[in-house]
Structures are given as structure tokens and as C-alpha cells.
Amino acid sequence: MLLELLCKLTDRKRNECGVKPTFGGVDYDMCVPYLCGMKHVSIVVPEMAVIEAIADPRYCFRAVNQFLELAGKPALFDVHLVGASKDVRLENSAFSVHTDMLLQDVQHTDLIVIPALSGDLPYALELNRSVVPWVVEHYSKGAEVASLCLGAFLLASTGLLSGKKCSTHWSAANEFRTMFPDVELVEGSIITEEHRIYSSGGANSYWNLLLYLVEKYTDRDTAILASKYFAIDIDRESQSAFMMFQGQKEHDDVEVRKVQEFIEANFQERLSVDDLADMVAVGRRSFERRFKKATSNTVVEYIQRVKIEAAKRRLESSRKNIHDVMFDVGYTDTKAFRDVFKKITGLTPVEYRNKYNKAGAVSQQASR
């Protein structure tokens, strides 16, 4: 009935989307309104991909189609797995993914999803070189592109992120900066969006990007329904609370590396930029410039992050109260400690302890 109604709405000879729709296995050239409203989603199946990052977006968009149909609306997403070959073996051949279409057979797509990669990332990029020109071609035709977690490496290799912002898994931040220095990596961010390009933070953070896209293409109510169905916090904005700081040491500045090691070994002490510059006999301005270039952090930011990382470990594993932890890592001002901690982790020290150390949280409550 719905199909008949849609077909009567137009008398055009050919649909304007450049795709022949199918319904129940039958081609319909005349159903322009329905087809032109559909979003064609191409989920790339690269070599060395994370299987969940292929299955989950497929599951998400197909489930949303079901929600829409149950609400009496037409399905919105036409979802295909696409790849350089018909079968892609993943995780040492534990899984085999059968693609719906080869890359060269995709004539039109609205959204390209690049799943997370795994293992040796430079090698993974080498294996997936054929994907790069395909993504660039369809982006130039108007397609949007979304990378999930470590899929940002494959997206960045296309050059489309040059001069733009991007998110990826926090554990790969240093490697990403080294490989793609012209991309602005937004640490801690769950989602970034710029010029039809989206990226997500680490691991399951990609679900937040999927919900974001669902809301963009449908509406808020449908996105909320999807978040409840998949048990995802729809408005989580940061992965900061999950991050572990790993100072960038893959550089050639010997003096800066010496200072980094000194900070990490003496974070309990009161450290000043002047003293650290004097330690390596470098002028302060030159030292700060070199430190920022080598580590992507200012000296003060680096000191703060090392101290807060140490505080996080203590809050996770000990029953010390917040003040004792604060003193242990070299802070004497409660407000300053709390403000820096929340700036870096997105949580207050108390909230962090309650989230990651239940025994410690119970101990603190009992002592009151």
C-alpha cells in the first residue's frame, strides 16, 4: 500500500538519485520520493579491521530502520558492506566478512563508515591503500565520512583531515600525531565533526557517533530510542575519564626527554619552568617552544598531567582520602587540585574515586 502511494506521487521517467530501488526483490524506477529520501550507507570492510566496528554500525542502522517501520514510517538507511574483495578474513581468519559490494561497484553513497583498525597500524594502512582513492572520490561527490576509533588512521591517510580536527583512541594519540602532524587531534573528545567528516574517540565511544548520526538523519526521539535499545549514554561527550597519560617521547630532542623523565620521577615536588629550563641549560622561551613542539603539551600542562595521572592511580587503588592523595602528588591547594583534576579527567576527584574504586568510596563514606 505504501509503495503504491509513493509510486503515484510522481510521474517522472527516472529517479534523480541515480540508483534503481528495490522493494520485495522488484525494481521500481518511479518511486522517487521514497528513494531520494533514503541514505545509502557504505560500511568499509578493511583488512585488519575490528570485527565489532563493522557489525555494530550495520546493526545500528538496520535496527533504526525497524524502529521507523514500527512507527509507520519508511526505512531510511540502505546499508551495504563494501570492500576491495568479496571476502575479508579478520583476526587471524577467526572471522570472514562477506561484502555486499566491491568498492568499484559503488556508484553513489551518502555516508562512508570506516571501522576501527587493529594491530600494526602502518602495516594496516599499507594493506588498505586501495580504499584511499575510493573514499576521496566519493567525498568529492558529496558523501560524508565517519571514522570509528582507530579508523581515524585510515581516514587521515586520505589527506581529507589535513588542517582539520579529529578524534581517535586516546592510547594511539602519540602515534597519530607522529604519523599525521598536519591533523589537529582533539584529545578526550568523543566526537568531532568538520566539513562532512566525523570521527569518534576510543573503543565503544563510536556508539556515541553512531547515535549522533542517527539523530542527524532522523530526529532526537529516534536517537533516544536507539540509545535505550543499545543501552548507550547518548550525551556522553568525553573519553577523558578513561584516558591514561602517556608522555610523547618519540622525538629527537634529548634535553626535552631528559626533563620529561625528571618530571615523571619527581612529580611529588614543586616544579617550576625556570628550574627545569636551567637544568638543561636552555633559555626559558626556547625551552618552552621546544617542549611544546616535541610533546604537544606546554611544560605546565605536562607537569599537571603527570601529577593527575599519579593521583588517578592512587584514587583507583588505595583508600587514602582525597587530601592525602592531593599532597602525595605535590598539590597543597584543594581548589587548584580539584580544578586541574576535573579539567583533565572530566570528573572531580570524588566522582573519579566513586567510579573506579568502590572499596575506596565505601571506606571514605564510613569514615565520615
Quick structural overview:
The chain has helices at residues 2-8, 32-37, 52-70, 121-127, 131-140, 151-156, 173-179, 206-217, 220-230, 254-265, 273-279, 284-295, 299-317, 322-328, 334-345, 349-356, 358-366, and strands at residues 22-23, 26-27, 39-44, 77-83, 87-90, 95-98, 101-102, 111-114, 144-147, 165-166, 184-185, 191-194, 197-200. It is an alpha/beta fold and 368 residues long.
What can you tell me about this protein's structure?
The chain is of the alpha/beta class. It has 2 domains: 38-242, Class I glutamine amidotransferase (GATase) domain (Rossmann fold), CATH 3.40.50; 254-363, Orthogonal Bundle (Arc Repressor Mutant, subunit A). It is built from 17 helices and 13 strands. The strands form 4 sheets. A 7-stranded mixed β-sheet has the order 7-4-3-8-9-13-12, with helices on both faces. The protein has a two-stranded antiparallel ribbon with strand order 1-2. Helix 3 (52-70) runs parallel beside helix 8, helix 3 crosses helix 9 and helix 8 packs antiparallel against helix 9. It is globular. The model is unreliable at 1-36 (pLDDT under 50).
Whole-number radius of gyration?
Answer: 25 Å
Mean pLDDT metric: 83
Number of helices: 17
Q: How large a portion of the residues is in β-strands, by DSSP E?
A: 5-15%
Distance between the termini: 67 Å
Helix content: 40-55%
CATH topology of the largest domain: Rossmann fold
> Which blocks of ≥5 consecutive residues have pLDDT under 50?
1-36
The assigned structural class equals alpha/beta
What count of domains describes the coordinates? 2
- Write the H/E string, N to C: HEEHEHEEEEEHHEHEHEEEHHHHHHHHHH
The outline comes out as globular
Tell me, what is the CATH class of the largest domain? Answer: Alpha Beta
Strand order of the largest sheet: 7-4-3-8-9-13-12
In the CATH hierarchy, the architecture of the largest domain is: 3-Layer(aba) Sandwich
* Major pleated sheet: 7 strands, mixed
CATH superfamily of the largest domain: Class I glutamine amidotransferase (GATase) domain
Number of strands: 13
